[in-house]
Write a structure and sequence with these properties.
The protein has 6 helices and 7 strands. It is an alpha+beta fold and 161 residues long.
């Protein structure tokens, strides 16, 4: 699902979810109009129409007089992120992508292995050159530079991420 948010050019940190906007009473909507302009709804629908000309799948979100979102399949969402998001960005729209799509979100998992010599155990009857006595190892799991526990690693494996 692709949600539609609106923000001010002067203050992009202020984001308004359209679903929240349509749920407001008329007095609260008037307060929003003071920030976004008196013709907010008209401008919004025009801008969404322009965006839909660039990415036609957005038309399905405009089948209502109160658009809020656009439903995408997993394949459509991947195609949007891969092919269309940057085109909308170039046209002046801000596209907020999932964290895992960014280079920081796609940091590789690392496995560190440390080997060290171990002294022969006393009075066990095993020699110094047995496999158990030659190498002792310890491993650490990390994503980027952040160490993760074996439980966290198993959760990632189970989630197939």
């Amino acid at each position: 699902m692709a949600e539609v948010l609106v923000s001010l050019k002067d203050d992009p940190s202020l984001k308004l979810d359209l679903e929240d906007y349509w749920d407001l009473d008329s007095k609260s909507q008037q307060a929003i109009h003071k920030q976004f302009g008196q013709e907010f709804e008209k401008t919004l629908l025009l801008k969404l129409g322009y965006a839909a000309r660039i990415y036609p799948k957005l038309w399905q979100g405009l089948d209502s007089d109160k658009p809020t979102e656009c439903h995408l399949t997993l394949a459509e969402a991947f195609e949007f992120l891969k092919e269309q998001a940057w085109i909308l960005e170039d046209a002046g729209y801000k596209v907020i992508v999932p964290a895992w799509w960014t280079p920081q979100g796609r940091q590789r998992a690392k496995l560190r292995l440390r080997a060290s010599a171990k002294k022969a155990p006393k009075n066990t009857g095993k020699g110094y050159f047995q496999l158990e006595t030659l190498v002792q190892y310890r491993y650490d799991l990390a994503i980027g530079d952040e160490h993760i526990s074996q439980q966290e690693w198993q959760q990632l494996v189970n989630a197939k991420t």
